[in-house]
Amino acid sequence: MTFADALLGQDELPRLPISPRQAERARAAAARRPHPVDLADAVITLVERTAAVDGGRLAVTDDTRRLTYAGLAAEARRLASLLERSGAGPGTVVAVGGERNAAVIAGFLAIELLGAVYVPADATWPAARVAEVLTRAGAALLLDTGAGAASPAHAAGAGAASPTLTAGAREAGVRLVRAGEAAAQPLWSGPARLDGLDQPRYMLFTSGSTGRPKGAVVEHQGMLNHLHAKVVDLGLTAGDTVAQTAPLGFDISIWQLLCPLVVGGRVRVVGDATAYDSVAFARLVGAEDITIVELVPTMVRLLLDDLATASRTGPSDDPSGTGPLGGLRWMLATGEELPTEVARRWLREMPHAGLVNAYGPTECSDDVTHHTVTAADLDLLRLPIGGPVVNADLYVLRHEDDGWHACETGETGELFVGGVCVGRGYAGDHDRTREAFFQDPFHDTPTGRLYRTGDAVRALPGGALQYLGRVDRQVKIAGVRMELGEIEAVLQRHPSVGAAAVVVRDFAR
């Protein structure tokens, strides 16, 4: 079965059971934000445009390397040659794993050049998880960016590949290719193979209630629209630097890896040792002029706690005198509900940096709402998640015996998402795709699809949405989306376990 065969077409999706009258009411009440965005270019094309006029501008830095736009473009093309010689081409699924470093970005751009599909394989996963993801994705290759094999600038054969990636690739029967092997490769020639805006661009695996992960497929148009949505709402410019802190298996890693490159800015890939040390991370933000950070709310709380403790126990080593995170423009909180108390502390202790409450499912190209938190929001028990990002359509519906009904302002319903951001469904899993994706009955959108989020929301006066929790047994812990049923299913595989029940207990700090 080819990768295309593993995806459902729009006309194969079910129709949402909603009457014409209720569809019209939902259409009238929808939160929509049409916005002109040029989606015709690949990210590598935008990188090479900047390289052509300012090749010496810094594009990516990590703990050991500094890549200019010219250097990044060249590295991507060497890796494209390596991957093509290894069997990658249009529609091929190529996994990338190993260290989070500059080579991951070059690898993504190389995959884009070939018209292939990117899927991350996190080196911190157990080998069995790596093998399952590679198998379910239908991956042909695994590009390892591990220590000593980080780039074509390093000698081929240096260093050791990740043992879990090696074992997982062997179990899945997938060829392991090391990034360092591209050192002697020629530059791949030709433009990026972009056959259409609906071309699958990447696949990310989310938790599934059956014990099997779901591979959510995102199209080129959805990914690029989300990158531009960040540019529009955050006012990103060539002077911005975004901290890349998310593990590769998280959807937010995509925009962190790529978004600054759309406008000629810089990505700073932050290694795990620093990313998980709040004080060290704050020092790095100040020292390297990082202007935009996105963390899960749990990490925002820890950052504030640790900085407060550090200020009480020792002298400040901030040479700028502007305080911790003094150069930060934006902090984005996403992945789980942002507590009002954390927002209150941020506005009080970091007044120079705006706080954005962001929300979105992996299946819809990441965030579909942004909300800049203000002091007025702090009177609410639950913060708003805001309105739609550009070219996203949001509908709040409630289910009754005769089908779906449109909700009025203040009524609780389930959130549905339409527009260019909606992905293709779950690769190779038509049943679960049909449970969550529908033909869009409201507007003629580029995808023609509507996604059922499973999240309960209500529209506040003024139009902003408020997140109220899940309508099923899915939970988020430190930003990681989990189906309790998946954990139960895995536990019950053990021959000594007859039955299992999983609950969540909140041990507040």
Automatic annotation (TrEMBL):
Sections of the chain in a coiled coil: none
Location of the AMP-dependent synthetase/ligase domain: 48-426
Domain of life from the UniProt record: Bacteria
SUPFAM superfamilies referenced in this protein's UniProt entry, alphabetically: Acetyl-CoA synthetase-like
InterPro entries: AA_adenyl_dom, AMP-bd_C_sf, AMP-binding_CS, AMP-dep_synth/lig_dom, ANL_N_sf
Gene3D superfamilies: 3.30.300.30, N-terminal domain of ligase-like
Alphabetized Pfam families for the sequence: AMP-binding (PF00501)
Protein name: AMP-dependent synthetase/ligase domain-containing protein
Organism field: Nonomuraea maheshkhaliensis
